[in-house]
């Protein structure tokens, strides 16, 4: 791993008693990258984030930020920013005082603090809210304030611990777009922890897929979805159809949207099956088709034409190069 | 009125009478100092007594000191146990209950044996030393109430996440306790403070045996030597205690409001 990585984690491990939750994890990221740690609960992603923050002490390994070893530093010496799932705004302070907290601790003079608070409120789209109290605001607004509070002292690294999980679905999507826009504008290196693969894929420059304390795959969202390195990465991220053994051999799979009901220029393989179920999801139509006893999911865009009916016989078209070979791992 | 409501009201009435009748009788008696008609002469006599003023002032002062010391001891202790040593909570619960189990008389004899004027730490050798000892004793007596008030206050806020949020922004522990934890449990701390005050103001056993001029011993002396004033003093004590309780109720309105919203 090269030295010039802005955030570098070397052989990091953590155990609680006999239970090893992080098993010698290493990765390195460049300045300004948006990184997601993605995995099911208990995979160690939150523990890694908390070790970067300094809230947990690793049993082994090291963490470097900007070339400096921060492994032994206390959280308040690391100059990082963090946003929590439960917002964690100070209920006794106004929005303005919440955002100014880190600046005040750092001894920034009052006038500069006020200017920075105004700048932050404008950035998160809540100008003029500095006199409000957290309880007077919606969850989405509170989380934006928490984001402003985290970045106001210009931290070296921004840590986001499932910041969208406590929010309703609609707010979640709009806030994640806003977080990404602000991150791009400031160019701040960001580590985002989530168990939601759609969130991780849509927002990140690179994604670390984790399972049981190990990294399964590290790559761009495009790579991870289209070229999963392990069986776990393939099945955890997105939907996957196992293809019938008889025709394709063992451990062959394909994404639902890569099977079509009509031939495409690149398709070279056909299958015949019976429609067993139809799920209408608005923009997408999800068909369940039974092929030689193997159920396959097929996603097609909703077209304003009569969709197939249950029991219909359909011909499926797919390209052999889209078929994934699942490794033994 | 339905029959079930009738019985509810009857039980309520009997319960209320059990507490109110002696109180009303005491109040009525306290007004009878002047023969033939009601007057507040007994109260006037109490307020005019320089000993009343002196002892009340003394007990109030030691009470305030006990509150300050109690807050300084209890708040950090509860904070650290909740944050870092949660397995010690049952032990904390037990220790803070001890003052309710061990009689004050045992406590004060212990003090006198340990800190008498010929001991290594002769607290009782001087008035100031005895005042310090008395303050400590009051802190101990009020511990069950102060601990529970503060513990409840801290349960209502997410101290772990708030602490972490403050830490990552560079704050050290004293700053976190002073600017993040204390303001958010202030209402709970004040409830504990008023309870402490209510206990301390009428405390007799320890104050008397340490021979300090407190309000409790004064009540006893007046009770033994006068007819009407003790009733007036009893009513006054009740008013002080109720005042303290009323303040707790009033303060509860200013408790931190939850902001857990999903929209």
TrEMBL record, chain A:
Pfam families: ABC_tran, TOBE_2. InterPro entries: AAA+_ATPase (IPR003593), ABC_SmlMolc_Importer (IPR050093), ABC_transporter-like_ATP-bd (IPR003439), ABC_transporter-like_CS (IPR017871), Mo/tungstate-bd_C_term_dom (IPR008995), P-loop_NTPase (IPR027417), Transp-assoc_OB_typ2 (IPR013611). SMART domains: AAA. Keywords: ATP-binding, Nucleotide-binding, Transport. One of its GO terms (molecular function) is ATP hydrolysis activity. Residues 7-237 form the ABC transporter domain. GO terms for biological process: quaternary ammonium group transport. The keyword Metal-binding does not apply. GO terms for cellular component: ATP-binding cassette (ABC) transporter complex. PROSITE patterns: ABC_TRANSPORTER_1, ABC_TRANSPORTER_2. PANTHER family: SPERMIDINE/PUTRESCINE IMPORT ATP-BINDING PROTEIN POTA, SPERMIDINE_PUTRESCINE IMPORT ATP-BINDING PROTEIN POTA. Belongs to the ABC transporter superfamily. This is ABC transporter ATP-binding protein. The lineage of its organism: Bacteria, Pseudomonadati, Pseudomonadota, Alphaproteobacteria, Hyphomicrobiales.
From TrEMBL, chain B:
Residues 52-251 form the ABC transmembrane type-1 domain. Its main location: membrane. GO terms for biological process: transmembrane transport. GO terms for cellular component: plasma membrane. The chain crosses the membrane at residues 7-27, 56-79, 91-112, 132-150, 185-210, 230-252. It holds the Pfam family BPD_transp_1. Belongs to the binding-protein-dependent transport system permease family. This is ABC transporter permease subunit.
């Amino acid at each position: 791993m090269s030295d010039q990585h802005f955030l570098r984690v070397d052989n990091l491990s953590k155990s609680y008693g006999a239970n090893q939750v992080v098993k010698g994890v290493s990765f390195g990221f460049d300045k300004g990258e948006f990184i997601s740690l993605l995995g099911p609960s208990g995979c160690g992603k939150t523990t890694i984030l908390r070790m970067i923050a300094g809230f947990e002490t690793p049993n082994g390994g090291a963490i470097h930020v900007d070339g400096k070893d921060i492994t032994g530093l206390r959280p308040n010496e690391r100059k990082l920013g963090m946003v929590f799932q439960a917002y964690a705004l100070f209920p006794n302070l106004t929005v303005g005082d919440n955002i100014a907290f880190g600046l005040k601790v750092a001894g920034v003079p009052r006038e500069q603090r006020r200017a920075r608070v105004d700048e932050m409120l404008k950035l998160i789209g809540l100008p003029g809210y500095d006199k409000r109290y957290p309880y007077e605001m919606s969850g989405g607004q509170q989380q934006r304030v928490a984001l402003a509070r985290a970045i106001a002292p210009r931290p070296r690294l921004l840590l986001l611990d499932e910041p969208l999980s406590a929010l309703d679905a609609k707010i979640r999507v709009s806030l994640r777009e806003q977080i990404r826009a602000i991150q791009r504008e400031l160019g701040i290196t960001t580590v985002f922890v989530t168990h939601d693969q759609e969130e991780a894929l849509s927002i990140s420059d690179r994604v670390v897929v984790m399972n049981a304390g190990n990294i399964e795959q590290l790559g761009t969202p495009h790579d991870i979805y289209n070229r999963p390195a392990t069986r776990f990465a393939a099945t955890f991220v997105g939907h996957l159809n196992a293809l019938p053994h008889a025709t394709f051999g063992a451990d062959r799979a394909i994404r639902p949207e890569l099977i079509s009901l009509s031939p495409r220029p690149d398709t070279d393989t056909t299958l015949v099956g019976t429609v067993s179920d139809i799920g209408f999801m608005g923009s997408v139509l999800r068909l369940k088709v039974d092929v030689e006893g193997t159920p396959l999911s097929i996603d097609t865009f909703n077209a304003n034409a009569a969709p197939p009916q249950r029991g219909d016989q359909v011909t499926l078209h797919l390209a052999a190069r889209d078929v994934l070979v699942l490794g033994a791992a | 009125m339905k029959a079930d409501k009738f019985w509810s009201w009857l039980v309520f009435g009997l319960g209320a009478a059990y507490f109110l009748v002696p109180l009303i009788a005491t109040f009525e008696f306290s007004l009878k100092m002047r023969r033939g008609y009601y007057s507040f002469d007994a109260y006037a006599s109490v307020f005019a007594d320089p000993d009343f003023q002196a002892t009340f002032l003394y007990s109030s002062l030691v009470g305030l000191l006990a509150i300050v010391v109690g807050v300084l001891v209890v708040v950090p202790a509860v904070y650290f146990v909740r944050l870092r040593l949660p397995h010690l909570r049952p032990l904390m619960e037990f220790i803070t209950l001890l003052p309710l189990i061990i009689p004050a008389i045992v406590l004060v004899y212990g003090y006198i044996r340990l800190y008498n004027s010929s001991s290594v730490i002769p607290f009782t050798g001087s008035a100031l030393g005895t005042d310090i000892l008395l303050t400590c004793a009051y802190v101990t007596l009020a511990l069950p109430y102060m601990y529970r008030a503060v513990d409840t206050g801290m349960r209502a806020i997410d101290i772990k996440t708030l602490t972490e949020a403050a830490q990552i922004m560079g704050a050290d522990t004293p700053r976190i306790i002073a600017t993040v934890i204390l303001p958010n449990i202030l209402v709970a701390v004040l409830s504990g403070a008023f309870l402490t005050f209510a206990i301390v103001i009428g405390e007799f056993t320890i104050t008397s045996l340490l021979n300090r001029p407190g309000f409790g011993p004064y009540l006893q002396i007046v009770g033994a030597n006068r007819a009407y004033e003790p009733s007036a003093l009893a009513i006054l004590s009740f008013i002080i205690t109720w005042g303290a309780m009323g303040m707790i109720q009033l303060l509860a309105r200013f408790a931190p409001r939850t902001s857990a919203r999903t929209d």
